[in-house]
Amino acid sequence: MEEKFEGNRAQRMRLDAAPMSWNKLWRKTGKHVVWIAIGLWTGFTFVGYFTPIHGLATSVMAFSVGPWALFWVLFYSFATWGNAGFMREQVCKYMCPYARFHGAMFDRDTLIVTYVKKRGDPRGKRSKKADPLALGLGDCIDCTLCVQVCPTGIDIRDGLQYECISCAACIDACDEVMDTMGYPRGLIRYSTEAAIAGDWSRRDILRRVLRPRVLVYATILAVAMVVFVTSLWVRTPFKVDVMRDRATLARLVKGGQIENIYRIHIMNATEQEQVFTLGVDGLPGLSLAEGSPVTVVVAPEQSTSVPVQLRLPYGGASAGSHGFDFIVSAPAAGSVREKSGFFVPQ
Predict the structure, then answer these.
(1) Are 4 and 33 a contacting pair, CB within 8 Å?
(2) Which residue in 15, 96, 203, 233 has a CA-CA distance of 20 to 30 Å to 5?
(3) In terms of Cα–Cα distance, which of 241, 211, 206, 229 is closest to 328?
(4) Nearest in space to 122 (alpha carbons), one of 147, 140, 134
């Protein structure tokens, strides 16, 4: 968006140095308006992960957003605007954990963005027709384009640095310069320290791929992916919580039965309305009381709480607490068994 409003790097530098004018004012203002709009959309979608986004959108359109939802939307909007618009490369340098993880797993055979020093040095400017060997120069013409295009502002010619995010912008810039000068590409390229030191070919680099470190990391990653996919496959797209009525542990009701009262909270995480059926299992004679809901309808991405009375014939179990399972099921969502306890008084 900045480039759309203010142009490329050189044009932006000239605009920043120019005195205030209508052209500068509308370009700067327009850029920030668009940035803030992107930030608000980011904040809205992020909060939408934690609260039903359809309801959030409705409340936004009606200007009735709750205080906490509004706070977090504005918080993440401001963070997006500040990080991307002002802090920029400082986020990559001091906040992003990528470099720390990368450094922990790095060795001489790690594929990195690297400058071939023995080919590029000594650096120096020259005409396109000049012979670098006659001038005693390497292939690097010291144009500094690799530094100018780097989002974190490092000079890759000084070696690998923790600020490098491996975006390869310097590779693209250098290859274009090499094409212009008529030199071979690859002065800056993806390679390894060992390959650069030993003048390895691409085949030699590939032979080093199957080393213990790579095999261990690949195994760990494969196991993590299997666990993740399995958890998605077997997950139940709704959640059930059972809470006992704290006011009354148990009571005798008409017909010589013992009654316990519960509240069942059902959270439907699917995008379709679900009809849940309630049942109990694990304690002989235990059943839902007449009048208790046997089915519960829950709207998409919503939750519902219902009171449930369970009854057991008097003398059907000894005094004390007896474990059993609530069974909540839906045809399209599977079933969940939630443990609870039925209290029988002395």
Answers:
(1) no
(2) 96
(3) 241
(4) 140
For the chain, the residue count is 346
What residues does 100 pair with on adjacent strands? none
Q: Which residues contact 214 (CB under 8 A, 6 or more apart)?
A: none
The DSSP annotation for 187-228 comes to SEEEE-HHHHHHT--HHHHHHTSSSHHHHHHHHHHHHHHHHH
DSSP alpha helix (H) spans, 188-343: 193-198, 202-207, 212-234
Tell which residue, 112, 210, 217, has the closest CA to residue 165: 112
pLDDT band for position 71 (50/70/90)?
A: very high
Please state the separation of Cα 335 from the chain's center in Å.
29
pLDDT tens column, 138-195: 999 999 999 999 988 889 999 888 888 888 999 999 999 999 999 999 999 998 888 8
- Tally of CB atoms within 10 A around 142: 14
To which H or E segment does residue 35 belong?
helix 22-47
**Is the per-residue pLDDT at 307 higher than 80?**
yes
Q: Where in the chain is the domain with CATH 2.60.40.10?
A: 238-344
Q: Kindly report, residue by residue over 86-108, the tens digit of the pLDDT.
A: 988 888 778 878 767 777 777 88
Q: 320 phi and psi, to 5 degrees? A: 120, -170
Per-residue pLDDT, 141: 92
Give the Cα separation of 172 and 167 in Å (integer). 10
What CATH number has the domain spanning 238-344?
A: 2.60.40.10
